[in-house]
Fold this protein.
Amino acid sequence: MQPPIKMGIVGVGKIARDQHIPCIAAHPGFKLRAVASRHNGVEGVPSYTSLQQMLAGSADVDAVAICTPPQAHYEVAKSALASGRHVLMEKPPCASLGQLDGLIRLARTAGRTLYQTWHSQHARAVEPATRLLEQRKVRCVQITWKEDVRRWHPGQGWLWEPGGFGVFDPGMNALSILTKLIPEPIYPEAAQLFVPANCGAPIAAEVELRTDSGIDVHASFDFRETGPQRWNIDIDTDEGAMHLSAGGGHLTLGDEPVPDDPGSLDAEYAAIYRRFHELITRGESDVDTRPLQLVSDIFLVARQIPVESFTD
Ligand code: NAP
């Protein structure tokens, strides 16, 4: 049996604590060796304040999970790959497609695994929905991704900085599901981005997309939802309506709910670590660039509409 892959985590915040640390502990093929975070450590694990210090102090780290906000991904991933480590990146990948392309090339020349994760693609109803859609013709799609930023992202000022993506930080999850459900090319035709006067990223967006074969997709993203939180994708097909809710967690066909497999957000990250282990073992990378491409294209076609300042 192979010894466990020694993991280092960069950026100890909410997602590192909620998902990465427990999932690494639960997978026999991984061991958490060290962490690097400017202000946060993990008890019982060597804790450093930068990637460079971590790689110097715990030189046997084999792979790095990058759990910082997206603005910091590129420099960390570049250094980790250049020093011969495998890399797993949280979503959103980087601040630009150019940076992501650079990392893909570097992973190839360094002969190391680069895994760009999209946790929502592992939500429990996404795979069954994808299989069903292989047998159906899609007529149109409505995405409704509306949540209260004050409830889910308190104090995360990086969201509002350029490269933080604003409402597209969670919105990219919907787009990552869309690109899995509909493999053909998708592009935005028009978009409105609602940008608070004091922010560098949108708080809401209305987007019209279209696929190569002419399927219309309308997407509404909003960070100001104080009522029921909605992470839904409604798909009208030639064999009836499909309704994905709970961020891809539940599927309803017409009025009939499809029984759920047991699972949760934890199952999404368990699947991510299974996939990362498989990729390292096979010497492969897995980078789906399409969700970032869509957001990048949306910013290109969008009209920006100023709205009132945002206070956390
Ligand atoms: P977070 O709570 O703000 O944690 C990120 C950590 O990264 C911070 O605690 C900070 O720790 C470190 N960091 C390094 N460079 C930073 C910078 N320039 N600005 C701010 N922090 C920096 O964020 P999070 O919720 O864990 O999200 C991190 C990433 O995971 C995001 O890309 C997000 O989209 C993704 N994600 C989050 C969730 C979720 O439920 N929260 C779910 C899925 C994916 P130090 O100050 O100690 O360096």
About this structure: The first strand starts at residue 5 and ends at 10.
